[in-house]
Write a structure and sequence with these properties.
Blueprint: E1 10-17, H1 24-32, E2 50-55, E3 59-65, H2 76-91, E4 94-100, H3 106-118, E5 122-127, H4 139-148, E6 153-156, H5 162-175, H6 193-208, E7 218-227, E8 232-241, H7 244-251, H8 256-273, E9 276-285, H9 293-298
Parallel strand pairs: 1-3, 1-4, 4-5, 5-6, 8-9
Antiparallel strand pairs: 2-3, 7-8
Helix pairs in contact: 6-8
The protein binds guanosine-5'-triphosphate and magnesium ion.
């Protein structure tokens, strides 16, 4: 039983921000102990805010995973992604700023500026320390960043190591305001199964396709039919691409690529939805969907 009415209970929202590819979504999933947000080795994987809720006897942290803040990309989709990250930061009680221990870029520099102007408590998470040969290699980065901003804490870790992530949780707890829980304590996300399914399909596509193609596609759930006895769900999804040539690549020779994507997505969804999944995928062309605010809205991208 969680005594969430206790005066000492802490609760608040925690925005996880940083440039693309530093490991924000990996960290969200590790903190919550469940795969909620998709991850891949390619930058700009996350396009939406994804809430992950961690509740226990003492505190509730409502983590908001955000799209990587990036510069110099003019499409409507890029604007929307950066806005989603910026507004999450503005609304949060606490910021987790994630950087890569082994790679500092101009985009990190731009995020630092935003963290400074947000003027709220911020934990600097230096991720991917497993990539460093020696821990002392962190010192110049810590010194440089600490000179620019008074961080509430600096935590070097690897989001892939559970023991490291467990060290971060109490640091977060100590920085949350005293408040009753914001969500029911058994709730893990505010996202629907439909949303999570579309994201899993996009993750498999992003991981299978090379170069620029993942940026030109989006996934829309067209129909979702529940069946009982035995419990199952039939999902029809459309993969929207921007050009006919991309459609051919996503389908692959003899349908090989699409088949492998469908299989990988179905296996994961069987597990995460806890019932049998029948998945049908179609690939359709919608020119320049990522440049148009109206097309983005129609495809389920919320404007913030
Ligand atoms: N070696 C190592 N790789 C990591 C670690 N954390 C994440 N990664 C990898 O880094 C890549 C990017 O991880 P994501 O979690 O998708 O990064 P992100 O910051 O959410 O990226 P965007 O959504 O594109 O902004 C993936 O290939 C992860 O497996 C870590 O601690 N060590
Ligand atoms: Mg991400």
């Amino acid at each position: 039983m969680i005594d969430s009415a206790a005066d000492s209970y802490r609760a608040g929202t925690v925005a996880i921000v940083g440039r693309p590819n530093v490991g924000k979504s990996t960290l969200l999933n590790a903190l919550v102990g469940q795969k909620l947000s998709i991850t891949s080795p390619k930058p700009q994987t996350t396009r939406h805010r994804v809430t992950g809720i961690l509740s226990n006897q003492a505190f509730q942290a409502v983590f908001i995973d955000t799209p990587g803040l990036h510069t110099n990309q003019p499409r409507a989709l890029n604007r929307l992604m950066n806005r989603a990250a910026g507004s999450s930061m503005a609304d949060a009680d606490l910021i987790l700023w994630v950087v890569d221990a082994a790679r500092w870029t101009a985009e990190d520099e731009a995020v630092l500026e935003r963290v400074r102007t947000a003027a709220k408590p911020c934990i600097l998470v230096i991720n991917k320390v497993d990539r460093l040969k020696r821990r002392e290699q962190l010192l110049p980065l810590i010194e440089k960043l600490a000179a620019f901003h008074a961080f509430a804490a600096v935590v070097p870790l690897s989001a892939q190591r559970p023991a490291d992530v467990n060290r971060l949780a109490p640091v977060i707890e100590g920085l949350l305001p005293k408040a009753p829980p914001l969500y029911p304590v058994d709730q893990v996300t505010d996202r629907s199964e439909r949303f999570l399914a579309a994201e899993v399909i996009r993750e498999k596509l992003t991981r299978s396709l090379h170069q620029e193609l993942p940026y030109g596609l989006t996934v829309e759930i067209e129909s979702w039919q529940e069946q009982s006895d035995p419990p199952a769900v039939e999902i029809h999804a459309v993969i929207w691409v921007e050009r006919a040539g991309q459609r051919r690549i996503v389908i692959g020779k003899g349908g090989q690529v699409l088949k492998a994507v469908g299989r990988a997505a179905r296996l994961e969804l069987n597990q995460s939805l806890g019932r049998r999944v029948h998945l049908e995928l179609w690939v359709k062309v919608r020119e320049n969907w990522a440049d148009s605010d109206a097309a983005l809205r129609a495809l389920g991208y919320e404007s913030t």
